[in-house]
Design goal:
three-stranded mixed beta sheet, six-stranded parallel beta sheet, Rossmann fold, 18% strand, 9 helices, alpha/beta, 13 strands, 292 residues
Length: 292
């Protein structure tokens, strides 16, 4: 294939994850963009010399970093691995992007907050992660800004997709296997369809406003719910007869503490890049249509 000289090259790390897969779906429909999708086996983001070589061999205009250590509970016993991927590697990637004049778009998380707020978290609110995963992601944010001041960091929450393992697919499986399941009802947040976030990222790139609007942004679908209500919505839309019972977090102990309140304020990203964001229930319907 002959590439046009005016094609914009977008590198997507963590290409086999939820976000990477959703960007793969979009790629064929975006004329003028050349996508390079790389897994950790194809590009080790913890190897700075490998990163430098890759960027020197390819003219990268944008790097969407979807690579992350996301095993929240496992991170409690593997802090070195979590910080290596979520912080150290991000610092390396940010520095390489800066040196090669590539715009870095980095995905972060609501876990940088402690979940004790009573209002939707703004980008300027104080961070206070309560888990190893959250601490590693916060360090990644700090390192990204230090090494690449033009970086755009997008914090999201409760991400799901028709790809890979996630809450929606787990609920569908359990509802087929069991007559009754228990789901936590005292943790609140905003379910986010990875396909919507992927489209938002591409809209941000196509806006040509990245350089003038660096910094941290929040993106989730609109509306607030809890895990139990989220599961009830999945049950209704899938036609399941499984009983879904609410339980408090105390009855579902996990190695890592979860924020009780993960609602993010998306006002800033909508204003900066003229984005329209769908309601979480509408997006859930679209996702379920893609899951067999």
């Amino acid at each position: 294939m002959t590439l046009r000289n005016d094609q914009i090259t977008i590198l997507v790390t963590g290409a086999n994850g939820q976000m990477g897969n959703e960007l793969r779906v979009l790629a064929p429909y975006l004329a003028g963009y050349r996508f390079l999708f790389v897994s950790k086996e194809e590009l080790n983001i913890t190897d700075v010399s490998g990163l430098e070589n890759y960027f020197s061999e390819h003219r990268i205009d944008f790097c969407i970093n979807c690579a992350a250590y996301t095993a929240v509970d496992k991170a409690e016993s593997e802090p070195e691995n979590a910080f290596l991927i979520n912080a150290t590697a991000v610092a390396m990637l940010a520095a390489v992007c800066e040196n090669n004049n590539a715009q870095l778009i980095h995905i972060s998380t609501d876990y940088v907050f402690d979940g004790t707020a009573s209002h939707p978290y703004k980008e300027t609110d104080k961070t206070n992660p309560v888990s190893v995963y959250g601490k590693s992601k916060l360090q990644g944010e700090i390192s990204a800004i230090q090494n690449c001041p033009s970086v755009i960091i997008i914090r999201t929450a409760w991400l799901y997709s028709s790809f890979n393992a996630n809450f929606v697919k787990t609920m569908l499986r359990l509802m087929k296997e069991k007559e009754s399941i228990n789901v936590v009802s005292d943790q609140f947040g905003c379910p986010t369809y990875a396909a919507d976030l992927a489209m938002a990222i591409m809209q941000i790139i196509m806006s040509n406003k990245c350089k003038e609007n660096p910094g941290i942004y929040h993106y989730t679908n609109t509306g607030v719910t809890n895990w139990h209500e989220f599961a009830i919505a999945i049950k209704k839309l899938s036609g399941s007869n499984c009983s879904v019972n609410p339980i408090p977090t105390a009855q579902y102990p996990t190695a890592a503490k979860r924020p009780a309140w993960s609602v993010l304020d998306t006002t800033k990203i909508k204003a900066a890049f003229s984005l329209s964001i769908s309601d979480w229930e509408d997006s859930l319907k679209k996702c379920l249509q893609l899951i067999p």
